[in-house]
C-alpha cells in the first residue's frame, strides 16, 4: 500500500501546525477561506511553504522531463507542418517549466537547488514521462490525453490560493489547450486512416492507459498530502475527482473514434455517476515514481547532460567565472 492510511488526517494537521503562532495561523486560514490570494511576502505556515515548493517543483520537473518523450519525435515527425507544430509544443513545455521554477523560487528555494535535486533523484516528477514513446502514435496520444489530464488538473488548481502558482497555471492552460487540439487532430488522423495507422494508435492507447490512470495520483484514502493541500486550497479537487473528470470527458471521445481501452471493467455506474475500473497497479506506480521505471535513468541522464553542457552559458551570463565573460560584456 502507498502512504499511511492509518493516520487520522485531523490529528496529523494539528501536529503539522503545532509550532505556528495561533493568531497568525487563524488570520491565514481566514484569508484562505475568503478565497484571498497569498503572495510571496505574506505570512504563511512553514508547512504551506514546504508543500508548495514540493508540488510546484515536481510540476516544473515534469514539464522539462515531459518534453523528452515527444521531443524524440521532432526529427522523425511525418511532414514539415507536423514537425513545426511539435517543435512549438515541446518548446512551450520547457517554457512552462521556466514559469513554474520562477513560481517555486518565490518561496525561497533556488533554481540551482531544484535542478540538483532533480538530477540526483531526490525530487520526483510525473510518473508518466518514464515510459517510452516508440511510435509517432505515442507522441499523438501524449499530446492529446496527457495534455488533457494536465489541463483538468491545472484548470482546477488555477483557482487555488498561492498567487504566483495560480497565475503561472492560467498562462500554462492557454497553451495546453492548443496542445490538446494538436494531439486530438493527430489521433483523429491516425484513427481514421489506414489499417496500419489505426492499429498503431490503438497500440499506443493501450500502452498509455495504465500510466494515465496513475497520473492523477494514488487513491484519496492513501494520498498523503491531499488533506492539508485541500484545506489550504492548493489542491482544489482530490486525485480521484480529477481521475473521474478525465474519464467523464475522454473515455466517450476515445470510444467515439472506434478505439478501445485496455480495461474490461471500465464502465460508468448509472446510479453513482462514477466510473468503475480495474484498480491500477499501485506497486508499479510506486516503483516508477521512485526511480525504477522503464526510462527513469535515460530521462535523468539527458537532464544531467543538458545541465553540464549548459553550465558555461549560465556562468557567463551570471558572470560567475571571469574567464567566460567576453571583453565587451
Ligand atoms: N507522478 O499525496 P499525493 C504535464 C507522489 S504536467 C509522480 O496524492 P499530491 C504537462 C506525490 O508527489 C504533469 N509522483 O500527492 C505536460 C507524493 O510523493 P512525495 C505534472 C506522484 O501532491 C503534458 C506521493 O506520490 N502535473 O503533464 C504522482 O497531493 C504533456 C503521494 O501522493 C503536476 O505536477 C504522479 N503522477 O498529489 C508536459 C500538477 N502522483 O512528494 C509534457 C501539480 C502522486 O511525498 C507533455 N501537482 N505522486 O514524495 C499535483 O496536482 C499533485 O502534486 C498530484 C499529486 C496530483 C500530482
Using the coordinates shown, work out and report the CATH topology: Ferritin
Q: Which runs of at least 5 residues are low in confidence (pLDDT < 50)?
A: 1-7
Main-sheet strand order equals 1-2
CATH architecture, by name, is Up-down Bundle
Classify the secondary structure makeup into a structural class.
mainly alpha
* Strand elements, count: 2
The average pLDDT value, as a whole number, equals 94
Binned, the helix content reads 55-70%
What do we call the CATH homologous superfamily?
Ferritin, core subunit, four-helix bundle
Straight-line N-to-C gap? 56 Å
H/E topology pattern: HHHHHHHHHHEEHHH
* Inertia-based shape: globular
Radius of gyration: 21 Å
Our estimate of the beta-strand percent is under 5%
- Describe the biggest sheet? 2 strands, antiparallel
- In DSSP terms, counting alpha (H) and pi (I) runs of 4 or more, how many helices? 13
Query: Ligands in the structure?
Result: Phenylacetyl coenzyme A
CATH class: Mainly Alpha
